[in-house]
Amino acid sequence: MSLENYRYDVENCVRCSNCKWVDYICMKSKRFSKICPSHTKYLFDVYSCQGRMDVARGLMNKELDYTETVLDVVYKCTMCGACDIMCKRCLDLEPLEVLETLRIRLVEEGLGPMPAHKAYIERAEKTHNVFGEPHEKRFSWVPQEFLNRKDADVIFFVGCLSSYRSLEVAKATLKILDTAGVKVSVLTDEWCCGSPIFRVGDLKTAKKLMEHNLSLIKDTGVNKVVTSCAGCYKMFKVDYPKILGEETGLEVAHIVEYIDKFLDEGKLKFSKEVNLKVTYHDPCHLGRLSEPYVFWKGERKRYGLTDPPKKWRRGTYGIYEPPRKVLRSIPGITLVEMERIKENAWCCGAGGGVMAQYRDFAEWTAKERIEEAKVTGAEAVVSCCPFCKLNLEPKAKEAGMQMFDLTELIIKALGLEV
Amino acid sequence: MSVKEELKTIVGSNHVLTETEKLKEYSKDFSFHPPRMPNYVVQPGSVKEIQEIVKLANKYLIPIIPCSSSVHFYGLTIPEEGGIILDLRRLNRILEIDKENRMVRVEPGVTWENLQTNLEKEGFRVFNPLFPHRLKSVLTSYLEREPMIIPKFEYSDPILTMEVVLPNGDLLRTGSAAAPGVPDETISDLVGPYGPGLDFYRFFQGAQGTLGIVTWVSLKMGFLPSLKKTFLITSNNLEDLIELTYNIQRLMIGNECFIVNNHNMANLASTTGNPEEIGKLREKLPQNILVLCLAGGYRRPEEKIAYEEEVLEKACSDVKLKPQTSLPPIPDLSKTPLDKLHLAWSKDPYWKFQYKGSCCDIFFITVLERVPDFLKLAYDVLEGEGYSVSDLGYYIQPLEYGRACHCEFNLPYDPNDPKEIKKISSIFEKLSERIMANGGFFSRPYGLWSRIVYEKATEYVNALRKLKSTLDPNNIMNPGKIYYL
Amino acid sequence: MERIPREIYHTLESIVGSEYITEDPVICQAYSRGGYGKDIYDRGRVRPACVILPGCTEEVQAIVKVCNRYKIPYIPVSTFYIGFCAPTKPYTIMVDLKRMDKLWINEKNMYAVVEPYVNYAQLNTEALKLGLYTNAPLCGAQASVLANHLFQGMGQNVWRTGFANKRILAVEWVLPDGELLHLGSASIIKDYFWGEGPGPDLRGLVRGWFGHSGGLGIVTRIAVKLFPIPYRGVPEVWGVTPSTGFSLPSERFRWYNVICPTLEKAIKFMREVSKAEIAAVCMRIPYVWRYLRKATCREELWGYWLEDKAKLKGQIPSIVRVAIWGFSSEKQVEYEEKVLMDIANEVGVTVKPASPYAAGECLKPAASVRAFLPGGNFMGQKFNFDSLDHAVKVLKSGYKIKRKHIPPFMDDGEEAGWILCFDFGYHVYAELDYYFDAQEDVEEAIKAEEELLKDDLEIKAYPGAQWGHLHEVSGPHMLNYHKLMEKIGKTFDPNHLSNPPRFIGTRKEESTILTEVWRKICQSVIEEEKRRRKNS
Predict the structure, then answer these.
(1) C-alpha span between B409 and B407 (Å, rounded)
(2) Residue C149's pLDDT band (boundaries 50, 70, 90)?
(3) A288 close contact with C: CB closer than 8 A
(4) Contacts for B406 with CB less than 8 Å, ≥ 6 apart
(5) One domain for residues C30 and C131
(6) How far is CA C383 from CA A102, A158, C432, C535, in A?
């Protein structure tokens, strides 16, 4: 992935500012009209997607040196992809891939990633999880019958965060799968999916982790993978093929897709009311960025026409409806929407290595989201990603709101406990 | 050669007046402005002559005061520092009537009477103030931003393009009239107001002749509706009518729309103009009357009036009022001047002067909802000064869909009674100052207003001075007319 | 890298605080190019020396005063979509007004007061909740309301709302020398409801046919007119990106595409609609825009377009977009629809109902950036403003020139272009667009720009391309208005520091000289700084 490959995308940014605002048609108030956390917080234009395109151009054209500020500009971004999707309403460019490539470039130059990122990458290399916890602890919570199950139909890829920090999500997910009669297996040799590492530009390490995980899964002979984490989900579904350069051969699903299907098929039936007014936060990696990766190898011809014609991921087919449908089907739940939803969702602030390196920025972004949630009158915020939950929960509590992962509510509605 | 001789060389000896009697005519008007004599009155017959006069004035540093009307109400053409009155009445041609583009182009000497009667024949009109004096220059009315009685969208700003002799004698044409080859060879139709470069056309509006001499102006004109229906909606409570006006304007129905009180309505509806009749009529009329004229469109006029009438009925009933086509004291509107709201006041004396021989006007811009406050203020001042409150006329003209309004107080007085003049002068000063202190905006600061307004608007004056010194480095154009400038 | 001397930088820093100023080249890099008109209007661009983010008018004023003291050029930017704000002079300070984003709406008296960083999407979103709206520009709802009112002002609704010049009410303005100026009612009573006066209307300085592009100081606040719309609320959104829209109640809002077999018929149709004073929107749209709007990608656009163009065999119809809004009642819609059909039958054109979701694109245009879709760059040209006849003449004449540049320009089969009527057709705007390859055809586009302007002068039309260096080209043919602008520029911007030389291109010499003067003044400071750095 060379920056030079994206020269066209960089040079053809037209500075229209679409990357800074929610889709105007969908805008519901001035208060919640912005979409880019980085630009909203740091104000200088360089902290917007269009500004970062200028930096990329400056670096490519050797008008700029690789300085500390370049690092600051490139890493103070949650990689939420809102800019990318908003840009693609009008233009055929790949801004998010430029941002990804910029980070890869910085790592190649020996400058990136940032210290906190380096620390968790080092931990991941040693212990296979970003927290540096003992690997054995990863699956200590899993009942024996689910570990490396031979007759499995589906592999539940738990992910670091669910395994070590948000056990409630991991347990709930497993329970749901089991209740629905799925022959589910958790692999004891699961490693970090590599998402937090790839997100900050360390392609090499991410690739190692990917190769391990893919070969591990391949050995089981199972080709269905389900995740409870939006980060792992996008990593498997989008980034693995991108890094690999070919399809992984896996059928990747997020637990919410399964739940939706199980409800339709009658495999799950709710027995308890969950009396709660909730609002739903779309995780970026489950929503606008979750469309399958599209392979394209070709070149830009005259008028910038792509040859062969490229198919674009514009965020149209993100997983927006299933979580909403599931929430609405839970007895007692009232779903009220925030202003910025689906492809227009405001990021929780955790992504892109921001939570590790720029705690204040992550918290600020979360606070902004919770303020938006509060306005809806909801009692609780629900999401489908342990990262979102982790980052939003403290701010939700401060605002007197509860925070749930969707799986937790499903468990309640099923009348189960984890 | 003397200045007089040089002037004669330019315009011909018939068109340079220096006799004291003649000059005196230009030294005063209907306002309280102290009389001041010009040194010369010059009547140019062409733009070229104007340019030469201006160059001459620059050479000798003689002030020039442009003058286009035969009647003046606000002292604008009374010289402050002597000089040449540039009487533009000889330039009185309607230069073109462009029906396709709904544009008419006129010279400064074209009067309201002349223009509207001529356009009426063609089925057109320009957008007019409330019964302008028949001898008033149309061009001056527009340059002075007199409020138009149709508050539809931008009709309050109907100037399209203009030609101006700048204070140094250069020519400038604004908007699309700046195109090469204007007026004969261009393909421009002279209807685009903006540019070139800057919106120059704005400078000359409200400038009281201090920034240049406009030699022609092209104006929007509209179809004279083939069908119309005028309604009177009355209430003794002004607030109700104001609320209704807001609603009507937001619904965007009707053409002419304004509020007058009983005194002004009596003036407008009187068939004789006799003060006694006006007095009696006034007593029989409700305190406030909203006049709204529904006009049929260019196509399907009946249907347009029909749906607008339905909307009007509903809007009125929402505030418990009723639209009427006549009032008991005015049984037949078609017998009154109100039947033809697009025309100039054709009779003598002028409508405002009928009651007492003269009239002092105080007008300013505000928002409709604030008018009742200003009215209370006016009553307060009038009572304090012992002026009969029932003689007060007021006229409220919504502007641009009711976004703002022109609020005008008319104080009739006897011009031959020095005591009354003194009283009116005192009221004028006190009321103006109180209106200003309470947030009334004198956008056309004449006479006394010029001082009280610009005293406060120091930033604006500073910028105006810069502009004035750029355009008129020798301060030739109507010097002293705008206070502090 | 040319740095501003420390003393001056620290003074600026003390005005806004260190958080809001930078001279880091990386951050400054993002202020060095324009988007619309890139590589064309921002030719000769350089990276600015400093970016500063004032938070209020007082800070803007202080910055401008410092700039005048030390003769440093500055450029105000808000959304910075247009290339006219790209710096071309050394030591330029970019005054990014992003922190100034307040919006107030006066519902009763129908106006909004906005600071520079409020965009149309925000304004119309909030205004719609109150039953109000304003025309949103065709360039997109992300445009700054303030900047757009000062520079352009096209859009679907100009049919009723008029051009932006007339929608400006009171103004707060930091003049090029740092003096503060309030226009209209704000000049005395600090209330923004009225724009004229007192006395001569200085709004004439704040813009012209085009604006001064920050070449005459920094406008920090303006009141703009709002207009009634028969809807109140937040419309429900339909669709998902990139195809989103909203509709408004069909009893009051109807949309039509009027298919006219010839340009002449389209003009006749528009003229009759003008006379009838009906409708809320009436504008001619280039035919290719049907494809630009609907295409899911560039390749599809070209594919469908080339296929259909071949089928049409040069007989490309003129499309007039019409909307009828029942401002007063449903019966108004019925009435206007009847009149519209009368006219259509008379003229011989076909009225087809259009998607109700056109409402979204009308009030908060989002798809406009698709103009860049065909080739990565495009240019609007002509911009003439006069009558319908004038529009047709300039477009037809311009088309002959455009033809010569096809290829490399995309053959959009368009003999005319955008024709927008203002104030029920009293004024008419004409724009000719050409789409080209962003990498290869820029020089060709620049050539065409100049040819098209010269064409206006030749056919004795009113040239629309009125900015910066182009005044110099047209001025001599138009009573030398550029000389007057030059005088005004010198009076109000004696040091020629406000986005030089964009106000009037003929001042370019002087500005260089002034920069030289500044260089000399500051030489010692620079030397000292160099020594200090060397020693440390």
Answers:
(1) 7
(2) very high
(3) yes
(4) B147, B363, B364, B365, B395, B396, B397, B399
(5) no
(6) 40, 60, 8, 57
C482 domain-assigned: no
What's the whole-number mean pLDDT along residues B327-340? Answer: 92
The larger pLDDT score, comparing residue C314 to residue B331, is at B331
Point out the domain boundary residue: C466, C483, C516. C466
Contact flag C35-A15 (C-beta cutoff 8 Å): yes
Query: Looking at this protein, which amino acid is placed at residue C245?
Result: G
Q: In B347-457, which ranges are continuous DSSP H helix?
A: 371-384, 418-437, 447-456
Measure CB to CB from residue C24 to each of A12, A17, A69 and give the nearest one: A69
DSSP bridge pairs for A362: none
Q: Is the pTM of this model over 0.90?
A: yes
Structural domains of chain B in order of their starting residue, each with its CATH number:
3-87 (3.30.43.10), 94-179+188-223 (3.30.465.10), 225-341 (3.30.70.3450), 354-442 (3.30.70.380)
- Residue C509 clears pLDDT 80, i.e. is over it: no
* Contact flag B297-C339 (C-beta cutoff 8 Å): yes
Which residue has tokens 């107030």? Answer: C104
Half-sphere exposure of C85 (CA within 13 A, CB side): 27
pLDDT in tens, B18-72: 999 999 999 999 998 999 999 999 999 999 999 999 999 999 999 999 999 999 9
Per-residue exposure over A340-366, b if at least 16 CB sit within 10 Å of its own CB, e if not: bbbbbbbbbbbbbbbbbbbeebbbebb
3-state secondary structure of B436: helix
* Distance, CA of A31 to CA of B409 (rounded, Å): 44
Q: What is the pLDDT of residues B236-260, one digit of tens each?
A: 999 999 999 999 999 999 999 999 9
The token pair at A360 is 């204040």
Q: In what order do the strands lie in the sheet with B16-17?
A: B16-17, B40-42, B84-87, B64-67
Task: Provide the 3-class DSSP secondary structure of residue A286.
Answer: coil
Rounded average pLDDT over C485-506: 91
Please tell me the least confidently modeled range out of A47-51, C77-81, C343-347. Answer: C77-81
Structural domain total, chain C: 3
Question: Which of C462, C469, C479, C482 should we substitute to test contact with B (largest number of B Cβ atoms within 10 Å)?
Answer: C462
ipTM: 0.96
Cβ atoms of C95 and C54 within 8 Å: the answer is: yes
Assess whether pLDDT exceeds 50 at residue C513. Answer: no
Q: Which residues pair with C353 in a beta bridge?
A: C256
Please name the member of C29, C237, C299 whose beta carbon is closest to the beta carbon of A55.
Answer: C29
Contact C175 B463 (CB under 8 A): yes
Rounded to a whole number of angstroms, the distance from the CA of C473 to the nearest CA of chain B is: 12
CA–CA distance, A6 with A194 (Å, rounded to integer): 24
- A66: contact with C, CB 8 A cutoff: no
Q: Tell me the Cα Rg of chain A.
A: 21
Q: Which residues of chain A have pLDDT under 70?
A: 1
Distance from CA of B286 to the nearest CA of C (A): 27
For residue C37, tell me if it sits in a domain.
yes
Q: How many CA atoms lie within 13 A of C278 on its CB side?
A: 31
Tokens of C359: 């409402």
The answer to whether C1 contacts chain B (CB < 8 Å) is no
Please name the member of A25, A28, A344 whose beta carbon is closest to the beta carbon of C360: A25
Q: Read off the tokens for C240.
A: 């998902």
Residues in chain C: 536
Residue numbers of the domain that contains C503: 6-99+492-535
The residues, ordered by sequence, that sit 6+ positions from A308 with a Cβ below 8 Å of its Cβ are A296, A298
- pLDDT over 60 at C521, yes or no: no
pLDDT bin (cut points 50, 70, 90) of residue C531 is confident
Cα separation, B190 vs C390, in Å, equals: 10
